[in-house]
Each structure stands twice: as structure tokens, then as C-alpha cells.
Amino acid sequence: MKNAMILHKANEFVKKGNYESFLAYCTQDTKWVFVGERILEGRDKVREYMKEFYLEPPVFTVEKTIEDGSYVTVTGEITLKAANGTYNHYDYCDVWRFENGKIAELKAFVIEKKS
């Protein structure tokens, strides 16, 4: 579970709002695909995304982590604060790909929970 441990260690920085330390775990040309929403190419685009959407550090729980070679799949729940001050809750399934111990790619399936 080497890559899974790296991912969970990196995500501890996200939980604390230390996004630059998290980004150090990503390749320069990391690619993040939010299925049906947007594609981010490169560490700078991920940084911009975090500044826009992580107004406060996200609160997330991990339900399952599955590692297979250079891939780590994680399922769980995440809560994000919106610009209007409300909190939105989501279920997610993230598929991460690693290269040489760094996050090279993310394919995220994120579904908003309706109250």
C-alpha cells in the first residue's frame, strides 16, 4: 500500500489547509479530471482550483482505499464550503495514478448529496 500511504499523507495537508505542501506530492504536469465537470492540467491549474473551491479546508472521510499497482481508488464523503457560506456535501470515488511516488493523475466522480 505504498502509493495509498503517500496519498493519505498528502491529504493530511489538505485537511489542514496547507495546499502547497499537498501540491509538492503532485507531478508538475498532473492531470485532474472531474467527470462531467472540468479537466485541470498542471499543478498551477490544481492550485487555482483549490483557491477557488477550498474556501475552508474540505472535511472528508475515507470509506475504502484500494491499491493496485500505480493506481489507488478511494471512496468517501466530502464537505465543501460554498462562496455563499453554505456547506455542500458530496459522495466521491477518486481514482489516482502515481508516477515515481507522485500524483500524476486523478479521475474523480463526485455526486452532490441532496437533502
From TrEMBL:
Gene3D superfamilies: 3.10.450.50. SUPFAM superfamilies: NTF2-like. Keywords: Isomerase. It comes from the Bacteria. The keyword Methyltransferase does not apply. It holds the Pfam family SnoaL_2. Residues 12-105 form the SnoaL-like domain. InterPro entries: NTF2-like_dom_sf, SnoaL-like. This is Ketosteroid isomerase. It comes from Pedobacter antarcticus 4BY.
